[in-house]
Give the backbone structure.
Amino acid sequence: MSRLTAQAENPPGLNASVMPSTRLGEVEVLRTIAVLMVLVQHLPGNLLFWPNHFGDKILSNGGFWAGVDLFFAISGFVIARSLLPRLAGVTDWVSFTQIAITFWIARAWRLLPSAWFWLAAPVVLCLTFNRSGAYDTLADNWSVFIAGILYMQNFHFVESFGHFGNGTAFVQWSLSLEEQFYLLLPFAAFFFRRYLVVPLLLIALAGFFAPNTVLLHMVRLWPVAFGVLLALWSSRQSYQDCAPTGLAKSRAARIATLTILLVCLVSIGSPPLQIVSLYQGPVALISVIIVWVASYGRGYLWHAGASRRVMEVIAARSYCLYLAHIPVYFAVHEVWYRLYGLAMPSHFQKIMILGLGALAVAGVAELNHRLLERPLREYGKRLAAEYRAQTVPQMAHVG
């Protein structure tokens, strides 16, 4: 029996019995925290469209944008924890191609349908529901649409920053950056093999020397690299030896740990506080430390229970919340403008706007999750499984 025939019968990395589960409850809690941070960061000027001290002075000066870095660290850990074991020991191009394409098929159907829907929706909304101008111009939204489907929106954001509108779907710059990385990660794992840690360390450490320019903010792969490094470390005994086991015994210690880490994350990411001038590296490092505590899945960060189940439900919809929140914020702005013009909301109306905005974002995200994301994600899994089933016999035939 040839080596390729043996690999076809038992393809590298495709043995489910040795594959770790990618669904960790405490990591899902972090998804919820991360998306809530982003939703808060984008309140001023979007949902809070009136001049106000709370939005302009407090929220705008916080580092809630670091929720994106927390997302990046989570994504790097979860994706690498699933993908890299499949590529371990793979030395032939046929096996690598089969594993990489299977990964890309599943990931494309997981992300692209919702992403493309929320790239296209603002193009329609800016033409049909835009008396207030909240949705920017057709040119702005069309530019973002094309850049988004070509995975170049992070670079488009750099080009447009300070010169013209960023469009309604500007948050999707982070999806372009992630997908650029995950298109390259399988190749990096295949060619570098056991030396993969070297380029990852170089990327992660580069964040500590990165000046705070728009370009470097839009290509900040350091938290993703930290997340992948954490996934690699998690297979070693030293990872188990470093487990913060004491946190499992004390609720107060867990609350204090999470609170302190999040406060540090938001504070270091606040330019007005000027804690450190080069803050991208520290933000990435704190993000991966939070993910590390959660990564064991043993209650070191958040014990199982009703509160965690609620957080996990929100986490399952975090992708939809992230994509939909800006268009929904703008819709609330547009409705107000059509009803009251440029009139300043009363205090009660401001509370109502916040409440209605939150309900609208939750409702739209739920519809997106049920009608678009979940069914097409499952369809993508079936396509990936079918592709894998078709290619395994081909590998055996080649052998």
User: Anything to note?
Assistant: Residues 208 and 281 are 4 Å apart (CA to CA). The mean pLDDT is 90. The first helix runs from residue 3 to 9.
